[in-house]
Amino acid sequence: MTAEKGCRLFYTLNGSAVEFELGAGSVVVGRSQDCDLMISDDSVSRRHAELTLKGDSWYIKDLGAKNGIVQNDRTVAHSRLSNGDRFKLGNVHFTYQSKERNLGISFSENVTARSMKIDSISMEEASLMMSGVKDPSDDTLLSEANDWIPGLMSEAAQSLLASGGLDEMFEAILSLAFAHMPAERACIGLCQEADETVAVKLARSTNPADTEQLVISSTITSEAIRDRNSVVYLNSNTDAPPSQSITNLSLTSIMCAPLCVDGEVLGVIYLDTRDGKAPFKPIHLKVLSALAALSAVALRQASLREEVQREQRIRDRLSRYSSPHVVDRLVDGGEDDGGSGMYSEEAVASILFADLAGFTSLSETMTPSEVTLMLNAIFARLTEAVFEFEGTVDKFIGDEIMAFFGAPIAQEDHAERAVRCAVRMRECLVEFNASRPGEAELAMSIGINSGPVIVGDIGSPQRKDYTVIGDTVNTAKRIESQAAKGGKIVIGPATYELVKDCCRCEALPLMALKGKLEQLQLYSVEVSG
Length: 529
Fold this sequence. Notes:
Number of strands: 29
Distance between the termini: 79 Å
């Protein structure tokens, strides 16, 4: 059995759409801060009304409010609320929605007899309905009984456009459909690429006892998508033979409207009901089509917002480490892990470690704030050098910086970039020393190694770092700490093979590095000047 969602009130206050879920017991509504639902509006009394749950039904009672309660255009003192009821406290309009249930979904290819169809409504037409401007050619909107439509459209626009992500948007769309139309079950689906099939994103029922699957006619959804028409099917239609699929499901009527924006169909809204006393009417089809138009625009905007948020997550994660050019390319073509997952991959890269030789002893003569200022000034210059060659700053370890090239974007010349960055780092340190005449000069030892690595999020979902790991990284560190003495730039054998045609290097004596069984042939990069 599926889980129930609570009954809810929807209202608009100070231009913002608000949703309030009713709990158990009673809810006092009024202007006072002591009320369960406080409404900051002068037309609402301090204690205006009380909603009470009796059995499976909610009742509303006037608590002696000056402006009373108007339910469905009728003043009431005490009344039962039904799904979709509208009531007014002072100048504030509310819509009541009864409990919903999640539904299973299945599709049927049974053909039904269509009773009415209309072209999908444009955003401009929906805007006219919001403004209350009536189309003289449309008899369904001329009746005074339909004066609620502009308010409904305004509420829908505010509620939809104020929604956050797509899941919240789907909930808002079905909530509005239930609140303003006599539907018992509803779903919203998005079009699959390159065909007319629909992927259902959310399905709901207002009947707490409803455990059946919501059977959707793929014939109806395909017609709505293909023809861009909103359609209604009535079991009691006298102008067409009864629909066999509607009869089999004991349905009174079905409505389906496409979500169209800029000539593209994004999906459909699908409603049905078994209530013979409240079948769908032409005005409901018109309203559903307008709601679909608003929903399509809101969905498009929500999709754009999610895309912007996806890009921002990538930027936030990588901008601390990578150059702006690398970040731009990642955002344009990179994959996102959704903001909470762990992403890593294999790559071939060059790893650089640079350590400030003699800084530890120098720092012993300085205050902590002086040490911090000096390190920040040096690291700022070194980081610019890394970014100049489109590398990634992995981390700062005391007076050491670690960087890598060839990831997250593959670079065929990653080894050359790493070596040229090392040379530029040496130049930056010379410039820094020159800016401090009379002070002790700093030197820097740099080790570089190239090879396979794992690059990505390392750690846990709660605490992770974007970094590289592997034997290639460990060897680069050993080269820097054991071989790059006296401010040298020393590279491993794999790096040498990649840069020997563009950089002048000198072979060093074979060296046994910690953790290595065999001695390695290392090379010192010759730097002019």
